[in-house]
Specification:
- By secondary structure, the protein is of the alpha/beta class.
- It has one domain (24-197): Lysozyme-like.
- The chain has 5 helices and 6 strands; from the N terminus they run H-E-E-H-E-E-E-H-E-H-H.
- Helix 3 (139-155) crosses helix 5.
- The two termini are 37 Å apart.
Length: 199
């Protein structure tokens, strides 16, 4: 009887300590266009990390749904790996175009890059292509962002509660722009992620 009571006590303790940030279900993987789709060159060696939070950026220059996102991403890599920055690769782990298409960026296990003072080690970086200080976020891009965040959360075991933006870690920027940031302030993005994860 004594051991039976101890067993039930341990089971109760186990479930009461369950992490509330764990999703009830795994998010489906959205379609992600590989690096080969934008003609990426091989990256240089760089520091590795384990992502523990998800951080969202915008790219910061005008790009509409009818514009060439592949050319834009390739240009970012060429510029970033060139003499101006001397980065190892594109700075972000994923890109989302205004039409909602998602593109693979740098290796998830490689620390991203930034033009500001914060340290991106431990951050999984998602970049929405476009300038959302000046333009509104297309609905297709917004919905892809929500799906990608949910998938990254379950796939890489990153609590959705860690979700934040570039400006939350840096005083030097308004990234990801007021027109994207408002969806974080209002809770629209976090609520969308929670619905996918069944939380």
């Amino acid at each position: 009887m004594k051991y039976k009571f101890l067993f039930y006590f341990l089971v109760l303790l186990l479930f009461s300590c369950k992490d509330p940030g764990i999703a009830k279900r795994k998010a489906a993987q959205p379609e992600i266009n590989p690096r080969s789709s934008w003609n990426a060159v091989a990256p240089k060696a760089f520091a590795t990390h384990v992502p523990v939070r998800i951080t969202v950026h915008h790219e910061g220059t005008k790009l509409l749904a009818t514009d060439d996102a592949i050319r834009k991403i390739k240009g970012i890599q060429t510029w970033g790996m060139g003499p101006d920055r001397k980065w190892a690769d594109v700075p972000y782990h994923f890109f989302i175009a205004p039409d909602g298409k998602i593109y693979e960026g740098r290796d998830i296990n490689t620390v991203g890059e930034t033009n500001t003072e914060y340290n991106p080690a431990g951050h999984l970086l998602i970049c929405c292509l476009g300038n959302y200080e000046e333009y509104e976020v297309p609905e297709a891009q917004l919905q892809s962002l929500i799906r990608l965040i949910a998938w990254c959360s379950t796939t890489y075991k990153i609590p959705a509660e860690t979700l934040a933006t570039h400006r939350d870690f840096s005083k030097q920027t308004t990234c990801p722009g007021k027109n994207l940031y408002k969806y974080f302030e209002s809770g629209v993005i976090k609520e969308g992620v929670r619905k996918i994860l069944g939380k």
